[in-house]
Predict the structure of adenosylhomocysteine nucleosidase.
Amino acid sequence: MRLGIISALAEEQQGLIEALESPSKHFHGMREYTSGKLWEIDAVCVLSRIGKVAAAMTAAILVEKFEVTHIIFTGVAGSGDKNVNVGDIVVAESLIQHDFDASPLFPRFEIPLTSLSRFATDVALTERLAGAAGQITRVHRGLIASGDQFIGKLTQIQALKADLPDLLAVEMEGAAVAQVCFELGIPFAVIRTISDNANDDAAVDFMHFIKGVASRYAFDVIQNFCKA
Ligand code: ADE
């Protein structure tokens, strides 16, 4: 396995780059890719920056240029369910682009020419990641929705939940990585620590969380994952 690890922001991946043994850095397309050994696993860590295009580009480059065989996205997300609390972890079983709508040409959410609206994560990677996360906090598994919007209004998250009743979390990158990995045949998984409730308090809660717990969780989960 050669594992690509993507996060949007530095806070979501803090400590991991420092933990890489024999690191070597490569700049490409405005991003820094750091390769090395992470607890015996051959790994490449990179920050995608925020949004679906940024994440899609990063995932494609990881595969095509850095030859990773598996991808994990780790970061924070807003809660999409009343039972999913700040500090819990959501491990995706499938991901959807909630802002994709080519109707009436294709059904809402469907990605043209894939016949899919939900992209399933790799079962083995997801299982191992959920096990690693379960040693740290409460873990939920299910649907994550991604879009090029920070969800920071109660009315926004309520509207999304009405359309996607099984929604567990919202973020801005995971489903883009999912589509790229599906199209390139790369097993992938997405893990998100809940930073906020995607409501009117989301922006303040997000800023607070990202400065504190976010990085420690990501580090601990990836460490457990690699050592498993
Ligand atoms: N990432 C963390 N919180 C988020 C939110 N409320 N909306 C979108 N992405 C997020």
About this structure: The first strand starts at residue 2 and ends at 7. Helices lie at 16-19, 52-64, 123-134, 154-163, 174-184, 202-211, 213-227.
